[in-house]
Amino acid sequence: MDFSLLDLVSSSIAGAVILMFIVLFMSLYYFLIGAGDHHKPPEPSGAWPVLGHLRLLRGPKLLHVALSEMADKHGPIFGIRLGLRRAIVVSNWELAKELSTTHDLAVASRPLLLAGKHLGYNYAMFAFSPYGSYWREIRKFVSLELLSTRRLNLLGHIRMSETKASIQQLYKFWMDKRDNTSGFMVDMSQWISDFTTNLIFMIIFGKRYSGNNLNKGEALKCQMIFKKFTYLMGVNVVGDAIPWLRWLDIGGHEKAMKQILKEYDHILMKFLEEHNDIRRERNSPDGDFMNLMISKLKDANIDGYDADTINKSTCSVLNVAGAHTTASMLTWTLCLLMNHRHVLMKVEEELDIHVGKGRNVEESDIPKLVYLQAVFKESLRLYPPAPLGAPREVQRDCVVGGYHVAAGTRLLLNIWKLQRDPKIWSEPLEFRPERFMTTHSNIDVRGQNFELIPFGTGRRVCPGINFSMQMGHLVLASLVHSFQLSNLNNNNKLVDMTETEGFTMSKATPLELIITPKLSSDLYT
Known about the structure:
The protein is of the alpha+beta class. The protein contains 18 helices and 13 strands. Strand 11 and strand 12 form a beta hairpin.
C-alpha cells in the first residue's frame, strides 16, 4: 500500500476547499477525541485534524514496519487515525487469539472500501464482503465446493502437468540460451509469477494465462488488464480515509478502477459465454471452477446478486489472491534459500534421499520431505504474503486486551510483527527452519496456532491455505530437484531482500538466478 496521501492531498486540493471545511473537520475531530469515558487503547501523538496519523505513515518505511515501531513504544494494541477513520493495530499472539475466539464474530466484517465497490462487483467479491448472510453462503460454497480436500485432490493432475510444463520451459530456455559456462540467467520472480498465474487460470477458467489457449494478442491484453486489476486492488485511496474528499478522486484511482473493471468484466463475460456454449453443445462435466459454479448456481439470486455476478466476482478473487499469494510465498522462500546455502543443501540432500535423480518429483513425495516443509513454515513466518492481513471492521463494541474498542473501528493485525516476537521465537530475525522440527514442531500455519498465522485466523482465515501449501511444496521441490540454482557472481553476493508493499508483500527487485539442469535430459521432456 502506498501511504503518500499527504503528498497527494497537499498537491491536489485547492487551499480554499481545505479552509472551507477545516473548521467543521476540526470540530468533529475534537468532539470524537473527547467522546465517551471508556478506557481506550493508547494512541501515538502527532495526529493532525483530517489527516490523522497518515503523515507518520507516509514512508520511507513500509507500513507494517512503521506500525511495528509504534508497537514497540505503545504496546501490542494501540489506536491510530487513518484520515477520519479510527483503527486499532494488534501485534501479539495473545490478542490475536482473543480476537479470533472471544471476539471472532465482532471482528468478522470488512470495511466498505472503494476497491470492493468498483472492482468487487459492489461487494459481491466475498473477500471484500461485509459479514452477513451473503458472505456466509458464498464462503461456505467456496470452502465445500471449490477448495475442499476432495476437489483439490481432483486437481492434482493440473498441478502436476503445469509444474512439469514450467520445468520443461526452463530447460528449453537453458538449451536455447546457455553460454560457455553451461548456465543461463533467469528472472525467477517473473517465472514464478507466470507459472502461478497460468496454474490458477487453468483451475478457474480452464485455459492458460499465456500460451496455447489464447492467441498472442489476446494473451498480452489479458496480462495487462490482469496486472492493472491486481494493482488497483491493493492501492490506497484517499476517499477511503477521508470520505468527504472522495468527490475529488485524488490520484484518479476511482476512475481507474471503474475503467479496468469494464475491461476485466469483458474478458470474464467472454469466458462465461464460452463455458455456457460448451455446456450446451457437449453437456460437459464440472471441470474448472467457472464451469462448476455455472452448474451449482444456475439461476441463483443471493441477497440481490445474480448467478453471473457471483460467478465472476468469486472467480476473480480466487484468481488474484491465489496467484499472488502463492507467487509471494515461493519467491521469498527461494530468496531465503539462495542467501542460506547450507539450508538449500539440506533440501537437496532430502530430495536425493526420498526422490533420487532417476525420476521427477511427485505429489506423493511431499509428506516425506519434512525439512522442505519446515523451510516453508520459516519463510512464511518471516515473510507472510500479507503482513497486515486484510483490514477488518469491528461490528459491535467490545473490550480487547482491557481496552474498549467501539463499533466501526477498523482492525489491522500486524502479522509481520507478531511472527517475530522474541518471547516466542529465539533469534526471531534469523532464518532457522530447524525450529519447526524441534522446539516448534507442533506449530502449523492453518490459523489454529496463533503464534504463526500467515494466512490469517478466525472466520476470515484464507480458505485457500491447503491449495497454496500443496502448490508451494510441489513447485519448490521440483525446481530444486531439477536445477542447480546459483546467485550472480558465483554466490558471493546475497540476494537483495528489499520489500515493497502492494496487494501482497513483494520483492522490490527481480530475483535473477543462474540455472543449470541436474537430471538426465529425458526427464525434462
